TrEMBL record:
Residues 1-24 form the signal peptide. Keywords: Membrane, Signal, Transmembrane, Transmembrane helix. The chain crosses the membrane at residues 78-95. This is MYXO-CTERM domain-containing protein.
Length: 105
């Protein structure tokens, strides 16, 4: 049980240090980009068709640096919270095992 917890924490720290998931680092399934071709608008014989004009791939909203910084900070908080929860579970399981061992004497 303890060895499994140590393995999980080691993998988590490796992900934090490198930013690469363990499955991708070990040759797991890779995510590939998918190209999408533009769709031709449908035309009807009955009348005109309204088509939305696009100017390029950069049309979407852009995140300002403060929003990106806040996203990074919240991600860090989530990671620290998960690590704290794992350590708490390890402590609780260790105390439970120690109490069972002492009561058996």
């Amino acid at each position: 049980m303890f060895a499994a917890c140590v393995a999980v924490l080691t993998a988590l720290l490796a992900v934090l240090a490198t930013g690469v998931s363990a499955s991708a680092a070990s040759g797991g399934p890779a995510v590939s980009a998918v190209s999408v071709s533009p769709v031709e608008p449908l035309t009807a014989a009955a009348g005109p068709v309204l088509v939305q004009e696009t100017t390029g791939p950069g049309d979407g909203p852009t995140l300002d640096p403060t929003t990106e910084a806040e996203a990074d900070q919240s991600k860090s908080k989530i990671i620290v919270g998960v690590i704290a929860a794992l350590l708490l579970v390890i402590v609780v399981l260790g105390r439970r095992a120690r109490n069972k061992k002492q009561s058996g004497k």
